[in-house]
Each structure stands twice: as structure tokens, then as C-alpha cells.
Design a protein that fits this description.
By secondary structure, the chain is an all-beta fold. It contains no helices and eleven strands.
Length: about 120
């Protein structure tokens, strides 16, 4: 069965860093693009980042460009989101999700993890 499990969230001070992991099982990771999304209380879910199946193409929403880096290690069946220079507005539940194919944009999203909470506060 397809499973995506996020980890690495927690409480961090502004300016700090966290590395989120998305562990995949039940499918061949290198066939699929993987996206990171987040949802803050009272706000709509937004796409944060995505990496294509090849790892060559990456996407970042404007608010995190230059601060976040997405990567993948297909041998470990894991996708990472390195988050640096964190801001209070980054506080949200972060989810990883499998795209329906190798592209970040051509197809929809078919499986989601349960999320990991990131809180940026002093």
C-alpha cells in the first residue's frame, strides 16, 4: 500500500532551520514527482515545493525561494525539505504528497501523508 510519512517538524526560533523528511513506501519513488504543501490555521493549503521524478526540475513558491531546498534520495525512498532562515509565517502543518506522475504540474496529486507540525516562534 502507498504510504507517505513526514517527520522532522518541531518548534524552532525565527532564523533557525529544520529538515523535513518524507519517507515513501509501497511504490517506486523514482517514477513520481513529490510535492510539499503546508496549511496554517485559518488559511488555505498552499503548495510549497515540488521535485520531479528525475530530480532535475524543482519548484518553490515565491515566499520560500532562497530559503528552502527540496531534494530526493530514491535509494532511501525519501524526499527532503531543508528549511533555513525560518520565519513565523512559515508556521504550518507540512504535508508531502505524491503526484500522479513524474511531473510537478502535468498531473494531480493522488496520495498524502498525515503531516508534521512546524512552529516558528520565539
Amino acid at each position: 500500500q502507498v504510504q507517505l510519512v513526514e517527520s522532522g517538524g518541531g518548534l524552532v526560533q525565527p532564523g533557525g532551520s529544520l529538515r523535513l523528511s518524507c519517507a515513501a513506501s509501497g511504490f517506486t519513488l523514482n517514477y513520481y514527482a513529490i510535492g510539499w504543501f503546508r496549511q496554517a490555521p485559518g488559511k488555505e493549503r498552499e503548495g510549497v515545493s515540488c521535485i520531479s521524478s528525475s530530480g532535475i526540475n524543482t519548484y518553490y513558491t515565491d515566499s520560500v525561494k532562497g530559503r528552502f531546498t527540496i531534494s530526493r534520495d530514491n535509494a532511501k525512498n525519501t524526499v527532503y525539505l531543508q528549511m533555513n532562515s525560518l520565519k513565523p509565517e512559515d508556521t504550518a502543518v507540512y504535508y508531502c504528497a505524491r503526484r500522479s506522475g513524474g511531473s510537478c504540474f502535468r498531473d494531480g496529486t493522488d496520495y498524502w501523508g498525515k503531516g508534521t507540525l512546524v512552529t516558528v516562534s520565539s
